[in-house]
């Protein structure tokens, strides 16, 4: 501050704040920082009160007013900071409530827990936590604001996409309302990839290909995506999506053809869905049905369940309980089969005491089939878990599938020769040559089913190989436009 301004502070009680002269007594702002303007304000408003003060008293009074102003400013800054922190905390907690699919009214319970905790840990901070608003309506507004911001971010990113692909899934919820999920993956010229749930559309009426196309078209319009940038679509293979004449995919290809007659979309079936469907050729229903019946006998009755758990604890079993099998989740089947195999002796003894005979557990053929089913489902579960990893590209997933298919060929030949190193559960069972021949045939059939169901991916092997190993591909395999683009772009952009 210039020395003249310091003099005016002591003389007229004015302070320069953000380029303007502010009276320390009444807070009035004077636009022009000149002696005449400050003097006129002082003489008009405050001269009667301070006329009898000496120069030293004037200076002390000015200092006191300055300290008072700084205290007020510090208080306002602290309040502003505290309020900002409270609002941010409210947003963070609301976001977590939405991510975990909790009821919005849980925010009030969370705040109650926060206040009780802070009262014990740091009581002096309790007032700050009381400012965090987590009422049901507040959480609703916060989630709506977050959703709007995420949609805006997705629109901004979508504007930079060079191309994009869609994954579509249509199914009914518990109220039989059709829900169409639209997943989006887009890539920019600088290989920045965005993968996000673009929309979940509720369809109240029919779900024909035309109805689904209308919803997809509306989603693309909302995000500002152009049809000519669509590269491929992945579905679960249901008829209203894949119909040749009026299915959604046919409508989408027709829409793209209207814009660019030479552009062909790539249509694929979910890899994980295909992998689960392949299990039907194993023909292990006689094993699954018997296991499900046995597990339900134990779990469906509370007394049986308690007594069985007590039996396991008494025998210090590795398993503390036995799980239900959900027909929806393929992964649960492998876990149930494994637990029944490990507990087959305890299960048989328990059921005999209850007068519930399970003849399959005494049948060597069935027990051998159970051991084979345990090993095969474990292998398929391992593949399933690999395919569920985030951030995978199609060539990485297809590589995992082809590796599994080679593993099936190896296992089939080894089983014929009674080499069961990779099938440890079957190795424990009593088996005959007929068993080994049957299991070898099942593995061959499983390999054949994988080959059949993944034919659409096999047609794209050369393109996937070019993406995964570009320097191991022959130049002749590359399309002309790829060769031309690589020759014309700069070295900095290319690398």
TrEMBL record:
InterPro entries: RNaseH-like_sf (IPR012337), SPIN-DOC_Znf-C2H2 (IPR040647). SUPFAM superfamilies: Ribonuclease H-like. It comes from the Eukaryota. Residues 6-59 form the SPIN-DOC-like zinc-finger domain. This is SPIN-DOC-like zinc-finger domain-containing protein. The lineage of its organism: Eukaryota, Metazoa, Chordata, Craniata, Vertebrata.
């Amino acid at each position: 501050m210039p020395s003249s301004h310091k003099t005016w502070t002591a003389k007229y009680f004015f302070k320069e704040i953000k380029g303007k002269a502010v009276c320390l007594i009444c807070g009035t702002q004077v636009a022009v920082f000149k002696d005449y303007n400050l003097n006129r304000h002082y003489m008009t408003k405050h001269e009667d009160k301070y006329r009898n003060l000496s120069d030293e008293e004037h200076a002390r009074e000015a200092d006191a007013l300055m300290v008072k102003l700084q205290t007020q400013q510090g208080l306002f800054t602290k309040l502003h900071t505290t309020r900002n922190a409270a609002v941010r905390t409210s947003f963070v907690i609301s976001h977590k409530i939405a991510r975990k699919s909790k009821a919005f009214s849980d925010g009030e319970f969370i705040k109650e827990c926060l206040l009780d905790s802070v009262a014990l840990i740091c009581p002096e901070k309790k007032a700050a936590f009381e400012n965090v608003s987590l009422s049901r309506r507040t959480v609703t507004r916060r989630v709506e604001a977050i959703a709007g911001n995420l949609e805006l971010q997705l629109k901004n990113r979508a504007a930079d996409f060079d191309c994009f692909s869609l994954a579509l899934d249509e199914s009914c919820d518990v109220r039989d309302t059709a829900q169409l999920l639209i997943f989006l993956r887009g890539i920019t010229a600088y290989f920045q990839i965005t993968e996000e749930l673009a929309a979940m559309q509720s369809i109240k009426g029919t779900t024909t290909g035309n109805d689904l196309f209308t919803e997809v078209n509306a989603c693309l319009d909302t995000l500002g995506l152009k049809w000519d940038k669509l590269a491929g679509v992945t579905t679960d293979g249901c008829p209203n999506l894949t119909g040749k004449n009026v299915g959604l995919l046919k409508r989408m290809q027709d829409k793209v053809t209207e814009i660019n007659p030479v552009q062909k979309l790539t249509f694929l079936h979910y890899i994980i869905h295909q992998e689960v469907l392949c299990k039907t050729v194993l023909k292990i229903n006689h094993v699954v049905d018997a296991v499900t019946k046995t597990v339900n006998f134990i779990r469906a009755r509370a007394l049986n369940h308690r007594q069985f758990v007590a039996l396991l604890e008494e025998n210090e079993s590795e398993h503390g309980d036995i799980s239900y099998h959900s027909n929806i989740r393929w992964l649960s089947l492998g876990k149930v089969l494994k637990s029944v195999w490990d507990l087959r002796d305890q299960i048989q003894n328990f059921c005999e005491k209850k007068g519930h005979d399970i003849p399959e557990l005494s049948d060597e053929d069935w027990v051998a089939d159970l051991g084979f089913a345990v090993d095969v489902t474990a292998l398929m579960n391992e593949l399933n878990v690999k395919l569920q990893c985030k951030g995978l590209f199609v060539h990485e997933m297809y590589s995992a599938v082809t590796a599994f298919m080679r593993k099936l060929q190896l296992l089939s030949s080894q089983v014929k020769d009674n080499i069961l190193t990779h099938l440890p559960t079957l190795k424990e069972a009593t088996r005959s040559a007929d068993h080994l021949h049957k299991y070898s045939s099942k593995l061959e059939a499983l390999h054949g089913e994988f080959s059949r169901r993944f034919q659409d991916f096999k047609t794209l092997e050369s393109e996937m190989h070019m993406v995964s190993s570009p320097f191991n591909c022959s130049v002749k395999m590359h399309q002309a436009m790829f060769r031309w683009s690589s020759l014309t772009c700069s070295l900095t952009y290319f690398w």
